[in-house]
Amino acid sequence: MQEKVGRPDWVDSNLYPFHDNWVDIEGHSIHYVDEGSRDAPVLLFIHPGPGWSFTYRYQIKQLSDKFRCIAPDLPGYGLSEAAEGYDYSLHSQSHTLERFVQTLDLRNMIVWGNDGGGPTAILALAQETDRVLGLVVGGTFGWSIKKYRSVAWTLRVVTSPVFRFVNRYTNFLAWSMGSKMGLGTRSLLKEEREQYTRPFKKRNTRNRALRLFASFNDHATQEDLDHALLAFRKKPVLIQFGEADPMTGQKWPERWAKKLPNNRLILLPHVRHFTFEGAPEATVENFRSWWAETFTMPIINAPLRAR
What we know:
Elements: E1 21-25, E2 28-35, E3 42-46, H1 57-63, E4 68-72, H2 90-104, E5 109-114, H3 117-125, E6 132-138, H4 149-158, H5 161-170, H6 172-177, H7 180-183, H8 190-197, H9 208-216, H10 219-229, E7 237-242, H11 246-249, H12 252-259, E8 263-268, H13 275-278, H14 280-294, E9 295-296, E10 305-306
Parallel strand pairs: 3-4, 3-5, 5-6, 6-7, 7-8
Antiparallel strand pairs: 1-2, 2-4, 9-10
Helix pairs in contact: 1-14, 2-3, 3-10
C-alpha cells in the first residue's frame, strides 16, 4: 500500500470527509475510499466516467455503519493517476478493477455500478464471481449494444472529432454529471458541481471518458460483455433506474431483469440517468430494504447466504 500526504486544493473535505487510501496496481497509483468495519460485508462502488469516488459520497456516509464501503478512483479519474500509455478502454479499466479486488482480497461483495461502472464491473469480476454476493445497477448495461441503433449512434456522435473538440474546451461531460440534465430531479450546489469539473481542469484530461465510450462500440468488447454477464445469472440484483432515463426508454431495466432473474426492479420517478445524485436517499432506502429481504446478516467473518 502507498502512503501519500495531502490532497489537491480542489478537493472539498467538507463534502468529501473520507480518509485517503492508495495502492499501486501495475503502475497505476489508485486512490480509494475505505469506510466502515473490516469485518462487515463489502459494498464496492464503481463510478461512471468521468466521475470519481465523490460520486457515491451520500451512499458511503449512510451505509458505512453496517457495510465496508470501498470506492476506487479508476486510473486517470479523481485522485488516481494512470500509468503512462494507458488507453482508458473498457477492457483496460476492467482489468485494473479486477487486480484491485484481488490485491485487496475483497470478498462478500455487493457491487454497485452506474453508467460505465456497470460494464466495467461485469467484465472485471466475471472470473471472480465467488467474491460477489450480488449487484446494484442503475443507468447502465452489461451486454452488447449493437442491437440498439440509437445508442450506438449516440456513442458515435459523442466520440466524434467535433464532440471531442467541444468537450476539450467546455468540459461538458464532467459538467453534465452535476446538472439537472443528468439528474432530472434536483440541482447540486455549486460546490458539489465543482467536484465533478475541477478534476479535469487541464484540457488534455477531459476526453478520457470518451475513449472509454468509444470502446463500448468495439465488436470484441461487446461479445465479451455478453459472455461475462452469464457468470452473474444466479446472483441477486437490485435494479434502480430513473423513469426519465433514456435507457429506461430502451427497456434496459427490463433487459437486466430478464438476464438476471433473481432481481428487484425499481423505477425512480422523475429521475434521469445518474440515480446516485438524482435520488440519493431513495437509492439507499431501496438498498437497505433489498438487502434485508435478500440476505441473512453474517456473524463476523462468516460467509453470507442469499435467502
